[in-house]
Structures are given as C-alpha cells and as structure tokens.
Amino acid sequence: QVQLVESGGGLVQPGASLRLSCAASGRTISSYAMGWFRQAPGKEREFVAAITWRGSNTYYTYYADSVKGRFTISRDNAKNTAYLQMNSLKPEDTAVYYCAAARDPLYASTDYRSPPSYDYWGQGTQVTVSS
Questions:
Q1: Alpha-carbon gap, residue 23 to 115, rounded angstroms
Q2: Alpha-carbon gap, residue 10 to 90, rounded angstroms
Q3: Best label site of 43, 73, 90, 100, fewest CB within 10 Å?
Q4: Coil, helix or strand for 4?
Q5: For position 8, what pLDDT does the model report?
C-alpha cells in the first residue's frame, strides 16, 4: 500500500509560482507512474501532468495543453517524492490539486491522462490564484 501526501498549495496572485510536493510512503515509487490532476468546483477532475518510468533512469513527462510551458513535473526518487512546479499561474488554475501513483508504467496517453488508471491518491491541496 502506498500513501501520498500533497503539500505546497496556497493563495497566490496571478503570475506567481508555487511548487507542490507529493510525498509517498509505504513503498518505493521509483518505477511508478506519477500524475497530477486538478478539480475545480463544479468540474470533473482533469489531467495536469504525468511522469512515467521507461527503465533504468529514464522518465518521460507529459502535460495538458493548458499548462504546457508553465508547469513542470519532476521526481526525486531518493526522497520518494514527486513535484509540480507551477509558474505564471492564472486564475483558471484555481483548483484542488491531487497527486496520484500507478503501479503500471502507463505508456499510452489514454492511460496516463485517465484517473482510473491510478491506484493511489493523495487527499489534495488547494491552489487559489486571485488578485
């Protein structure tokens, strides 16, 4: 069993940056696919970014079009932690952000973009972008 705990959310002004962390415990997650999703009030949970293992020390990253160029997903296997660096934040980025982990590598976009593909979820952290 894997437990995920997100942190780093908060209230920021448009244009600011935040870094979300997702600390995993219970198992080493170096081979797990890690994803970030978000859910705004009244909307469905949507894919934000994913980082998937391709063997050895190779990882691929994927992003939703809405965050490409502004957000960066990364991981530190020594700390068993994944991160989401969010720059140039916009009001439309306001949501609860969730970290997720999948035992499978999730090669296909239909997999890493889909919440049911993930086995473990954090409790979420609120990000509010407002002036």
A1: 19
A2: 13
A3: 43
A4: strand
A5: 97
Measured distance CA(96)–CA(93) in Å, rounded: 9
The pLDDT score that the predictor gives to residue 50 is: 97
The residue type of 77 is N
pLDDT (tens digit per residue) in 39-94: 999 999 999 999 998 888 889 999 999 999 999 999 999 999 999 999 999 999 99
- Element (H or E) spanning 36, and its range? strand 33-39
Q: Give SS3 for 92.
A: helix
The CA distances from residue 4 to 83, 100, 104, 106, in Å, are 12, 7, 17, 19
Contacts of 113 (CB under 8 A, 6+ apart): 47, 50, 62, 64
